[in-house]
Amino acid sequence: MDSQKKMALSAMPDEKRHPGPFETSPQKSGNTGIDLNQLSFCYGTSPIFNNLSIAASARLTVLRGPSGCGKTTLLKLCMGILQPSSGSITPEHKKPVFISQEDALFPWLTGMQNIQNVAGFSAEQVKTSPLYPRIQGFLERRAHQMSFGQRRLIEVARALLVKPDLLCLDEPFNFIDPPSRALIQEVLMEPPPHLRDVTILVSSHYDSDFAAPGITTISFDGTLPVKNLVVSVKS
Questions:
Q1: Beta pairing, strands 86-90 & 34-43
Q2: Which of 59, 88, 104 shows the shortest CA–CA distance to 233?
Q3: What is the C-alpha to C-alpha distance for residues 201 and 33, in angstroms, rounded to an integer?
Q4: How many angstroms separate the Cα of 77 from the Cα of each of 82, 115, 127, 215, 228?
Q5: Distance from CA of residue 94 to its chain's centroid?
Q6: How far apart are alpha carbons 131 and 141 in whole angstroms?
Q7: SS3 content of the chain, % helix, strand, coil (to 5)
Q8: Which of 54, 109, 180, 229 could disulfide-pair with 113, CB 3.0 to 4.6 Å?
Q9: Based on the number of CB atoms within 10 Å of its own CB, is 179 exposed (0-12), middle (13-18) or buried (19 or more)?
């Protein structure tokens, strides 16, 4: 599934893309978080990050800041979709999954088919998803017959079934209803046992997303190139 999404991403002009393959060294169990060491990246001649070094050891980290500040670029760098011009990101991950802002379902397939055909799961495996009670009512609809929020729930359910070691979600709560938003946040903050060691990075414009105590936040101020970021933990 993650490779399908990576192939679907359209490159910006002069975007320096990772040549692949996207498989890297496996992450040690419990080794969650991200560590950026002297990271630099440019789109063509426009620098986005300049010798940036930060460390966030949390299992779930939220990237906050205005549009165009570098949040999505950082997610793609962590995924290995983009290649830094210098510096490094650790730990490396063997099974990263990226959920973009754009719809990534095949519109002519049902929700169940989008999970089974793309990710290779049986119907019984789909029923084990923590989001199954919320999606079972529209799993047999074709994706083009669903609302955007329903399609987003299918994407998140599919991603969780893959059991990634890195899960990146780019503005996942845009255009979805409050109950669905609350359910996804609950699943990500209090995950099933097989997701306990997963590093989760979420970009968001809104302070109301993941506002619970203990959530680690990386704050962007909107200035480019990004040289410094503030890492904080909500009390």
A1: antiparallel
A2: 59
A3: 9
A4: 5, 26, 33, 22, 17
A5: 15
A6: 16
A7: 30, 25, 45
A8: 109
A9: exposed
